[in-house]
Amino acid sequence: MNDAPIVLQAIKLLKRIEGAITHTLVNEIDLDVRKGEFLAITGPSGSGKSSLLYLLGLLDSPTSGEVVVCGLETSKLSETERADVRLTKCGFVFQFHFLLPEFTALENVLLPLRTNGKLSRSEMTERATHLLSTLGLASQLHKRPFQLSGGQRQRVSIARALANSPEILVADEPTGNLDAASTEQVFALLRDIADQGQTVVVVTHDSGLAARADRRINIVDGKIAETTFGGRRAATPQPAPAAPVEAAAADAPAAPPPLPPQPKAAE
């Protein structure tokens, strides 16, 4: 695990809100996240954990410092280029699923594939169908969000996040609105995604779930106050980076099967 390449890096990452009183949300954080790592970010409300996640996922821009995604120094990118990195390198899951209510589960998962435009129509449909089926939703493809349970809706949002085979899955309190059974199902899916080699970074208030991640960082007042290691893999602390690195549903599966690979783009 510790030999895996770094796919996400924060270098002296700072986020301040200027005003009558300047408020520092993220205070010069250094962080390396490796391929296939499951990283949990915890901390009290207002500590800056979600602010850090949004910076890492390029949903927000830092006051200073750098976010390096798969070798790309994102501070040097245009807004169009940042949007392309978000679409192709990062997948997003939030506490609220943000599914489009007028679209079916299948149509919601097709949206990022259509935006990316790398696959033919039949390949997009095949991938979206395969993802939803893999996540235990084969019988729910043509249902709209209001016809699904909370756990099913969140699994659709995970399928949507995985549509373009991102290197990094970013999740902000993905189990915050779920019951205990659905929480376990969603966490098991995230754990399985990391075990298959995709990087997962999740903000959570659930200390029990966070303890099962490969690494947990606790944020206090915008800084990393504590780092602990656990989960399924042994890990050792990483030094601070010195420079950018190049380069509950009835149909829920008891244990998540392997996720499908993305088909090749049509010539």
Notes on the protein architecture:
- About 30% of the residues lie in helices and about 25% in strands.
- With about 270 residues, it is of the alpha/beta class.
- It has a single domain, classed as P-loop containing nucleotide triphosphate hydrolases (Rossmann fold).
- The strands form 2 sheets. It has a 6-stranded mixed β-sheet, sandwiched between helices. The chain has a 4-stranded antiparallel β-sheet with strand order 2-1-4-5, covered by helices on one side.
- α3 packs across α4, α3 packs parallel to α5 and α5 packs parallel to α6 (about 180-195).
Oligomer state of the chains in this structure: single chain
Mean pLDDT: 84
Full CATH superfamily name: P-loop containing nucleotide triphosphate hydrolases
Strand content: 15-25%
Helix content: 25-40%
**Span between termini:** 36 Å
Q: Report the count of strand segments.
A: 10
CATH topology: Rossmann fold
Low-confidence stretches: 233-257, 262-267
Q: Structurally, how many domains make up the residues?
A: 1
Instruction: Tell me what the CATH architecture is.
Output: 3-Layer(aba) Sandwich
* Helix/strand structural class: alpha/beta
Helix segment count? Answer: 7
Major sheet details: 6 strands, mixed
Q: Widest sheet: strand order?
A: 6-7-8-3-9-10
Choose one word for the global shape.
globular
